[in-house]
Specification:
Layout lengths: L10 E2 L7 H30 L6 H31 L5 E2 L3 H32 L3 E3 L3 E3 L10 H33 L13
Antiparallel strand pairs: 1-2, 3-4
Helix pairs in contact: 1-2, 2-3, 3-4
Membrane topology: Multi-pass membrane protein
InterPro entries: Cyt_b561_bac/Ni-Hgenase, Cytochrome_b561_oxidase, Di-haem_cyt_TM
Keywords: Cell membrane, Electron transport, Heme, Iron, Membrane, Metal-binding, Transmembrane, Transmembrane helix, Transport
């Protein structure tokens, strides 16, 4: 049973009602975002600072891997949005109205960025005339056609959106840990596998 603080902490009514599919989608998306962001940062750094002839293949590998991983999020996020629409998360209880608003705003921003970041990357690659691989299995058509004049702006958009996503994900994780270790409620454990 979840414990509460004197101020009435942020417990979730029916927090154990997250099903296996919701948990799987949550952690799969989290893993893909972290890996894609890390590989993208590495590849982007190589592009920015330049590479030696011996590192060219490594740069190409990093960028291709980043695209292959990141584009899968477009398919997963569509599935996750549909799933969430038909499987609403448990309602928040014992939470001040301003905190409820902040929580809903945070989730909206997270979903928005999970769509905007890969879309901006897709558009960026398309404008530069590069193929967009999906999980290393096939490629998808370009978005908007080749447009070198637009590419620098799309590079910046993808860069800033990616950092915004990183900050929102970090904030999401920080608040989950706060709930667990400070508020001592079930917000974090509700999304973990059930113990037998």
């Amino acid at each position: 049973m979840a414990s509460t603080t004197d101020t009435g902490t942020l417990a979730r009514q029916g927090s154990r009602n997250f099903n296996a599919t919701s948990k799987c989608l949550h952690w799969l998306m989290a893993a893909i975002i972290v890996v894609a962001w890390g590989v993208g940062y590495y590849g982007g750094a190589m592009l920015h600072y330049g590479v030696s002839d011996g590192e060219t293949a490594q740069k190409i590998w990093a960028i291709t891997l980043h695209k292959s991983i990141a584009t899968t999020t477009l398919f997963l996020i569509v599935g996750r949005i549909i799933w969430r629409a038909y499987n609403r998360p448990p309602e928040l209880t014992d939470m001040p109205a301003i905190m409820k608003t902040a929580t809903h705003l945070g989730h909206f921003l997270l979903y928005f960025l999970m769509v905007a970041v890969p879309l901006s990357g897709w558009w960026n690659s398309s404008s530069a005339g590069y193929a967009i691989p999906v999980a290393g299995l096939f490629t998808i058509p370009g978005l908007g056609g080749k447009n070198p004049e637009l590419t620098p702006y799309l590079v910046l958009a993808h860069f800033y959106l990616s950092w915004a996503l990183a900050l929102v994900v970090a904030g999401h994780a920080a608040f989950a840990l706060k709930h667990h270790f400070i508020d001592k409620d079930e917000t974090l454990t509700a999304m973990l596998p059930k113990k037998d």
